[in-house]
Amino acid sequence: MTDVLARMGLIRMSARDTGTPHRVSTPLELLFDLVFVVAVSQASQNLHHLISDDHVGQAVLSYLMVFFAIWWAWMNFTWFASAFDTDDWLYRVLTIVQMGGVLVLAAGVHDAMVSFDYVVVTWGYVIMRLAMVAQWLRAAASDPALRHTALRMALGVSVVQVLWVSRIYLLDDTAQFWTFFVLVALELLVPVWGEAAGRTPWHPHHIAERYGLFTLLLLGESLLASANAIFDALGEGEHVPELLTLAISGIVVTAGIWWVYFSREQHGRLEGRRSAFRFGYLHYGIFAAVGAVSAGVEVEIDEITGHTAVSPAIAGLALTLPIAIVVAGAWLVLLRASLSRWASVAVLAGAVLIAVSGLLPSNEYVVAAALLVAVVIVLEVDRGRPSARAVSG
Question: What is the pTM of this model?
Answer without folding.
Answer: 0.93
